[in-house]
């Protein structure tokens, strides 16, 4: 494990799992200027996403790359020039320690090596499918309306895996959002760069975090997403993975 990522190996190299927001870790030399308990909230980590990614990787015997730094330090799932890359406020909470940060230094320390690692991995062992695992809150702390979806499927231009994923999850009885609770056409930085940018089918899976914040939920969703991954593997093979 490095300062930026943990790599889990697997024998089934045709699927790669990514979890950009797996950790709430803050290096000891960085002071975010916040109360420690805020690191347990969704603003710091995608609750349940890390354990779910590890469980899914084990179920599929597939490799996974999990970030090892909190998105309050730097959001690895944002473009380097994104206004929210190093957040000064998140869901109503001021992140005062980021007000005077050296942006270029933090990018060089965390963001650049994380994405180099992803790029190297994909060049070395090109997967046929990339799945990105995230979680979302049932409702924002400050504003917003209840998010009733159990799972959201996010995608940008490449719909090869996304449409099939939506159909599969809805057929299994899950309340599934199509580019909800937010759109992958706006927030899809990692997959835009490493999947669409390389012509690899991909999908971002957003699970409502109250459903995976405990071991039973992780186990349930790991089983469901393993079935989804195998279904996508088969459908992409039968369709020849042509882009739409």
Automatic annotation (TrEMBL):
InterPro entries membership: N-FG_amidohydro (IPR007709), UCP029730 (IPR011227)
- Domain of life assignment: Bacteria
Q: What is this protein called?
A: N-formylglutamate amidohydrolase
Q: Which Gene3D superfamilies match?
A: Zn-dependent exopeptidases (3.40.630.40)
One Pfam match, given by its short name, reads: FGase
């Amino acid at each position: 494990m490095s300062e930026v990522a943990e790599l889990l190996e697997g024998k089934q190299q045709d699927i790669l799992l990514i979890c950009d927001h797996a950790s709430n870790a803050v290096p000891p030399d960085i002071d975010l200027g916040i109360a420690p308990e805020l690191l347990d909230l969704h603003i710091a980590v995608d609750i349940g996403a890390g354990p779910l990614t590890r469980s899914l990787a084990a179920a599929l015997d597939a490799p996974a790359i999990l970030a090892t730094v909190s998105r309050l330090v730097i959001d690895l799932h944002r473009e380097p020039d994104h206004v929210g890359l190093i957040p000064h406020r998140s869901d109503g909470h001021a992140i005062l320690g980021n007000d005077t940060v050296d942006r270029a230094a933090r990018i060089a320390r965390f963001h650049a090596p994380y994405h180099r690692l992803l790029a190297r991995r994909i060049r070395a062992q090109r997967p046929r499918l990339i799945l990105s695992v995230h979680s979302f809150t049932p409702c924002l702390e400050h504003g917003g309306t209840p998010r009733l979806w159990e799972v959201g499927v996010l995608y940008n231009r490449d719909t090869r895996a996304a449409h099939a994923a939506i159909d599969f999850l809805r057929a299994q009885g899950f309340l599934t959002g199509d580019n909800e609770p937010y759109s992958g056409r706006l927030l899809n930085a990692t997959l835009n760069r490493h999947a669409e940018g390389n012509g690899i089918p991909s999908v971002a899976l957003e699970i409502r975090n109250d459903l995976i914040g405990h071991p039973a939920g992780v186990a349930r969703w790991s089983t469901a997403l393993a079935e989804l991954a195998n279904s996508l593997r088969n459908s992409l093979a039968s369709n020849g993975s042509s882009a739409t």
